[in-house]
Amino acid sequence: MALHGPLAAAAVSPGADFSNDNGWIVALKAVFIIVFLLVSVLIAIWFEIKVVARMQVRP
């Protein structure tokens, strides 16, 4: 069974191809993502502490 048209093009091009990236680039991207997630959690915790502390201030 031969594929014609858009199906044939979709079968040939797999989408994202990361085979040309070096190992250190992949490691750098992974470290960047992990650091971003850790820092965003720290900022969320800090903000939550500030909000709860503000709610506990008595007028």
H/E series: HH
How large a portion of the residues is in β-strands, by DSSP E? under 5%
Question: Largest beta sheet, briefly?
Answer: none
Backbone CA Rg? 24 Å
User: What percentage of residues falls in helices of 4 or more residues?
Assistant: 55-70%
Number of helices: 2
Flag low-confidence runs: none
Structural class: mainly alpha
First-residue to last-residue Cα separation: 77 Å
Envelope shape: elongated
Give the averaged pLDDT, no decimals: 84
Number of strands: 0
Helix-strand blueprint:
Elements: H1 6-12, H2 23-56
Question: What are the salient characteristics of this protein?
Answer:
59 residues, mainly alpha, 2 helices, 69% helix
Give an overview of the whole structure:
This protein has a domain at 21-59. 69% of the residues lie in helices and 0% in strands. It contains two helices and no strands. The protein has helices at 6-12, 23-56. The protein is elongated, with a radius of gyration of 24 Å. The mean pLDDT is 84.
